[in-house]
Amino acid sequence: MSRQYDVTLAEVSNAWKCVRKAGGACGYDKQTIKDFEKDLDNQIYKIWNRMSSGSYMATPVLLVKIPKAKGGFRQLGIPTVSSRVAQTVIKNRLEPILEEKFHEDSFAYRPNKSAIAAVKVCRERCFRHEWLLEIDIKGFFDNLNHDILMNMLENHTDDKLTLLYSRRFLKCSGIDNQEIEITREKGATQGGVVSPILSNLYLHEAFDKWILDKFPGMRFERYADDIVVHCVSEKQAYFMKNRIDSRNYPGE
Predict the structure, then answer these.
(1) Average of pLDDT values for 65-76?
(2) Angle formed by the axes of helices 40-53 and 81-98, to 10°?
(3) 9 burial class (0-12, 13-18, 19+ CB within 10 angstroms)?
(4) Packing angle, helices 195-203 and 160-170, rounded to 10
(5) What are phi and psi for residue 181, nearest 5 degrees?
(6) CA distance readout (Å), 243 to 129, 134, 236, 247
(7) What Å distances lie between residue 49 and 89, 91, 114, CA to CA?
(8) Cα dihedral sign for 189, 193, 194, 198?
(9) Among candidates 108, 204, 188, which has minimal Cα distance to 142?
(10) Rounded to whole angstroms, how far apart are CA atoms 230 and 134?
(11) pLDDT digits (tens, 9 = 90+) for 215-246
(12) Reduced to 3 states, what is the DSSP secondary structure of residue 39?
């Protein structure tokens, strides 16, 4: 196959090391990390060969429901080991580009950031601000608009490999517990390797940059789609609530 995209065997090999270190369950194909490792050189070569030719297709994710702390269920999508390796190649390309642009008060899915750090900063600011807004974007991961996200991504990179496979991984189908394949035209798979950084980019553009531009003095913490905005008064809190409620489109 001809090499249309610039990706190296070393990139794929390094991605595999990240996947092996992270561990995790097998996908719908039931291949474990140990199974993958038994034929490692061939597996790495196949992923590299297909990614570099543009023929690597995102495999379906295994759909699993897990209970939420506040009731209901969250649906996770577990990629195959092969897909986790390929997604990690893209994540490793995106992270150096986007990390330096993300806001310091965005805490989820980032190196040297954590939920505990977010809570610590939030607690400190609560001593200085008597009011806050607590925001949880309903169905964010399930309804994320692929076209808007890809437009955002194109503003940060022109790497053809990254753009091609980011879209493919976003659109990967799912296999439910009855082995029925479900296609998707929106949303980002919770459980995917590349989904966290892409969803962070979406909310960086849609919320973080917006609030800094419109209300530069406001302080906030964001952990994925969970957000706290600090206010100095009840009046300001309701004002911000109304403005955020009316914010529907990331390009506003």
Answers:
(1) 81
(2) 60
(3) middle
(4) 100
(5) -85, 130
(6) 19, 14, 10, 6
(7) 13, 18, 36
(8) positive
(9) 188
(10) 9
(11) 999 999 999 999 999 999 999 999 999 999 88
(12) coil
